[in-house]
Amino acid sequence: MVDNKSNKHKNYRAKTLGNHTLHPETQMMGYGYDPMLSEGALKPPIFMTSTFTFASAQDGKEFFELAYGKREARAKEQPGLIYSRINNPDLEVLEDRLALWENADCAAAFASGMAAISTCLWSYLRPGDVIVYSAPIYGGTEHLIRNILPLYGIKSVEFEAGGPEPTLPIALDEAKALGRVAVIFTETPANPTNNLVDLEACANEAKRMEAETGTKPIVMVDNTFLGPVWQHPLEHGCDIVIYSLTKYVAGHSDVVAGAAVGSHEVMGPVRGFRTILGTMCDPHSGWLIMRSLETLKLRMTAAAENARIIAEYLRDHPKVSKVHYLGFLSEDDPCYRIFTEQAKSAGSTFSFDVIGGEREAFAVLDNLQIIKLAVSLGGTESLMEHPFTMTHSDVPDDVKIRLGIGENLVRISVGIENVDDLIADLEQALSAI
Ligand SMILES: Cc1ncc(COP(=O)(O)O)c(C=O)c1O
Q1: How far is CA 114 from each of CA 78, 155, 179, 228, 243, rounded to the nearest angstrom?
Q2: Class of 107-262 in CATH
Q3: CA trace torsion 23, 29, 34, 39 (10° rounding)
Q4: Other CB atoms closer than 10 Å to residue 219's CB: what's the count?
Q5: What CATH class does 296-430 carry?
Q6: CATH 3.90.1150.10 segments of the chain
Q7: What pLDDT, on the 0 to 100 scale, is given for residue 2?
Q8: Whose CA is nearest to atom 2 of ligand 1?
Q9: Does pTM surpass 0.85?
Q10: Which residue intervals of the chain bear CATH 3.40.640.10?
Q11: 402 or 421, which is more confident?
Q12: Is 325 a catalytic residue?
């Protein structure tokens, strides 16, 4: 075998070409991976190994010192590979590439979106603390905050996404009276209503809390709905961006994974907790997600264009009373300004109200032929579901109604099929009402 290792190593972490700054969609094909370390293989091999051999005992000692934060890295010292719960080449390349979309220092990949969310929360919340969170949010996150965190003495105060401006300051002032406000958690656009939260306001309010109480709440944003292509929460002063990679990033409905992205300082405790909780992604899933990242922008662009056409079709449909599509926000809606300042696209997941209730919503879902009746979103194929009884089943009914999640609401994640076929399917399914 030719020893490719004798070839010159290129700078595989360059972010510029001369004066030209490279774009993430270009970088997804090569950033962070040196083929010469893997026999010249163009693509990173899958490192299916639980552990890594050390060249010497001294190396092992030094790798652990660095991994466990027992000392600072020396000049040019890179963390050594130890054990796949701590680090793995596929995850390292994946994490470097995920960080590029947000222009962030680093990322951590997890076994699921919920693993990312729960690990981030465990990293920053302590007994007696309070978390302030926007509503609605994904049902699993809501369950964690509402039912599990209280078992550990952590209280919560909710504020409404898309509500009038003062809802967050009021919630924070209420929370401050209950204990140390350690985290502001938000999901925007909110699943499933697409209500928006002003991220800059969250960051500014966190600073106000710091001035008033001495603790700056960490602002965490679940950016799953618009993904790293259409919204960049760190640019608005937030601290940690969280993803269910299962959705748009992996994008083929065949992987469950998650990620958190942020500065070295903020991500330090998260990475440390991940090592001990063991909530990391596995190398094979990591490799699949790297492959998906190569087409992320293409897929999200195509899906968003299909979604716009479908939203327009549904808006004119006599059996549909309202389409919760971000592109339809009117200028007097409190979310309009947030949308124009914060999002680069209306995305491709939205909900709509059919005229009627559960019976009519189910009739549409049961008659779909092309679009699949399934929860989840962000895949190449279109999916539809009934939030009231499915993804948000666990949220108390009165809370759902207050937040606009009615029994006549159905959610669609628009895929990249031919849009005429999707409209033909919706047309025949809606005629079943
Ligand atoms: C907005 C959002 N965040 C987080 C999650 C949880 O992600 P996972 O299923 O990868 O754990 C979901 C799942 O549907 C979601 O929609």
Answers
A1: 30, 19, 25, 18, 9
A2: alpha beta
A3: -170
A4: 27
A5: alpha beta
A6: 296-430
A7: 42
A8: 138
A9: yes
A10: 107-262
A11: 421
A12: no
